[in-house]
Write a structure and sequence with these properties.
Chain lengths: 465, 465
């Protein structure tokens, strides 16, 4: 298929239907008037507005969201604001016929599903840049900036880029993904003009990359100095001290670069298709054969905000990874999964699930005084001490060689760096290298099966056959 | 036991008995007169002499050796000399009632056992230093030097040092041992005065060590420059350009340093006792349990001089070791054994006798052109390709993971660095990681059993309990 055909078909995939658009508009209208009604008489609640992709007409099909913002007087304390927004948000969602759920990000907000559309009621302070008081205060400025710059024919270009990123697994600034936010895709279209130009430029990126639409920095060097550890720097047009791409990890960035290159070489509609259905257990069995897989599965006692949980999972995954490495295993890869309620799983692919029974322990050169201590200490070593070159050596015998038991012992004795909120759940976790028990876990959960299939195949979506 | 008592008892161990001394003297007399008789009329054979420990009265009990040297005119070609010495030596040994064996070192010599005494008939050229024509030409000068310097009461001090070194496993300059020659021990006693002083000094050595009895070099630095890679430099008093300790490896030197320190701390007669008897198979079974041992056993078609064979074995052992390392194994230790006739064995202790089924293969960063080639090449990888950071990775699957089969294949295809003289025998060798078959081999040979016990215990004699 030619590139033109592919992009034309992709456009039809990402563009909302008339029906969907009308449904969203209707709900937005209702939500805004409900919000206006509810804030009247609430001290400090100044105004309401629509933000996000609905406001900018850049949402992609099937992902319609109404982000209703309530603007507060800066005189209101954070504590009061949090109390008021939970109360206001709940009443607004209820008045629309939805069931309010309290969600937690930087500060709480209220979510409800109304006729298939996600309605979020979010608080922000009405402040002038750069006097931000909370993380959501920039959002109205973001909306205003994009609306003032984005030409109507660029809306679908944003949608194409979002759809491409989504199918490639790099869309989403949340900690789970560490990828590209909606706002960031809009800035990229503003900068490069259209989807194909953006993809062409991205395919040639070599990190670190600097994009400074408003030329706040006099040179790339200055911007790099301001954001020293970011592989991708997109200076926020509404806040010169903020990198709008701060959430993007080097891995996600690299995936996008590679995906762009492959797409340009061989355009295909699969770069816009949603991911595969959950695989069957039989397929997983084939994938896991001969692999050295260790897993840690556990249940949470208490729910927590998604981003908090994902942060804890990722940090703890790294802690366990380091612990396994220090035990003597090589960890090829690792991953985390959660249903974002109670069930959690961390998974590690190792060079083997057993350590060698003996390992080399190198001593000092014979002519150092410490050689005598070494001899004393290791006089009952399993093998040795012997001398090679000028040094002493012994082989130490391990009583325990199984990865899952070694890790369990380290977890039990508190030697593994685990996020505070997961210490207790992981102490009670199942740590195992048994593929059968893992597949049994997965048999009960489609999403876990999908995660496992992706982990075991170890190919980003755009490299799958 | 006090140091005095230990040394006194050691003296009795190392000093030859009256009987042994008389037997040696008698054989020396006979051998010398036989030699004188035989050379008369042989063109170019100028003189005969007694050399070695018998001449210097420094041999240790049970190791009586008569080194009969035939001095040749430098006008005689090397080829002629070799022919003549084989002929002369054989007749001399026969006339003493021994059975002549032709031995090979730098040039051939003839050996025979007569009444329990080893008689060696060796050729040398009569030349003035430093116009050496063959490796044995220095020997008469060594004898003369030691005789002119060594006081009679130092003879037993040499014997003590030899006995100590022998029991510690560091005595012998041959390639098998890479240790201390008899001449070297004599030089050490000349330098330090007596056995205890020598051991005290040695216990404080920190290589590199320089000993220059005749002060041929103006400073230690100059001597170090002249012999840059030697951990121990003992400038030969009869040849300033020769290191009399060139054969000593860093390992043997370090063992002697450590043995000296331990002996001084806790004097014991076991530092002069010969090594243990051959262990029984049952003990070997206990030692080998749980270990990852690979062995290569083979038979030679053709005999060869000891030093040649040991050189080939040690170089090939290192070649196989490097090959195993490059395959992905960790080689903790290795060793070689031979009965010095046909049977040979090389043995390797590994971290495991199986490689992991999968191994990590790191690709280029995504932004390099070579990333495309990597993707092409590894599109059918067992696991991946995936991206971490800015790089591509795959896991490669190994079809073969067993050390012995992997090594066999490498040997077969000529990828292992093996001494030329062992290539064919090793191609036909048994390469195995099966302990039972190894023990079966050892059950037929005391010396191999002893070697295996020492290899598996991996302690030098002076560290054994």
């Amino acid at each position: 298929m030619s590139m033109e055909d592919v992009v034309e078909r992709a456009r039809r995939i990402v563009r909302p239907t008339r029906l969907e658009e009308r449904a969203l508009r209707r709900i937005v209208e209702k939500a805004l008037s409900a919000a206006r009604r509810e804030i009247s008489g609430v001290a400090g609640a100044l105004d309401v507005s629509l933000e996000g992709s609905a406001a900018k007409n850049t949402w992609i099909r099937g992902r319609a969201e109404a982000d209703i913002f309530i603007h507060f007087d800066p005189g209101i304390s954070r504590e009061e604001l949090e109390k008021i927004i939970v109360d206001l948000g709940s009443r607004i969602v209820e008045s629309l016929g939805g069931e309010p759920m309290i969600m937690y990000a930087d500060h709480p907000y209220v979510e409800g599903i109304v006729n298939g559309v996600t309605v979020d009621v979010v608080a922000c302070y009405r402040v002038e840049p750069p006097n931000w008081m909370s993380a959501t205060d920039r959002t109205p400025y973001h909306t205003r900036y994009v609306l003032s710059k984005l030409k109507p024919d660029q809306e679908d270009e944003v949608r194409l880029l979002k759809g491409f990123m989504k199918a490639c697994g790099v869309y989403g600034a949340e900690i789970k993904i560490e990828g590209f936010s909606g706002y960031l895709t809009e800035l990229l279209i503003l900068y490069y003009g259209d989807f194909l130009s953006a993809v062409r430029e991205i395919s040639c990126w070599k990190p670190p990359i600097v994009i400074d639409l408003e030329r706040y920095y006099e040179s790339e060097e200055r911007a790099l100095e301001a954001f020293p550890d970011s592989p991708l720097i997109v200076v926020d047009p509404v806040d010169r001290s903020r990198n709008a791409a701060a959430a993007v990890s080097l891995t996600r960035l690299s995936e996008l670069i590679l995906a762009s290159r492959i797409f340009l070489k061989k355009p295909s509609i699969r770069f816009f298709k949603p991911i595969d259905p959950a695989p069957r257990i039989k397929e997983l069995k084939g994938l896991i054969r001969d692999r050295s897989i260790l897993y840690v599965s556990f249940k949470l006692d208490s729910p927590r905000p998604r981003d908090v949980l994902w942060g804890e999972l990722k940090r703890s995954e790294q802690g366990i990874r380091r612990s396994l490495e220090s035990l003597g295993f090589t960890v090829y890869r690792s991953g985390s999964w959660t249903d974002e309620r109670r069930e959690c799983l961390m998974i590690f692919e190792l060079d083997g699930v057993e350590l060698p029974r003996h390992h080399l322990h190198k001593g000092p050169p014979v002519y150092l005084r410490s050689a005598d201590e070494f001899l004393e200490k290791w006089s009952r070593a399993a093998v040795g001490p012997w001398i090679e070159g000028d040094r002493l050596y012994v082989l130490r015998r391990r009583e325990e060689t199984a990865a899952h038991r070694l890790l369990r012992e380290r977890v039990r004795s508190g030697q593994v760096s685990i996020s505070k909120g997961l210490v207790e759940p992981i102490k009670r976790s199942r740590i195992s290298a048994d593929a059968r028990s893992l597949l049994k876990l997965a048999s009960r959960n489609d999403d876990l099966r999908r995660f496992l299939a992706e982990f075991l195949a170890a190919r980003p979506p755009f490299l799958r056959k």
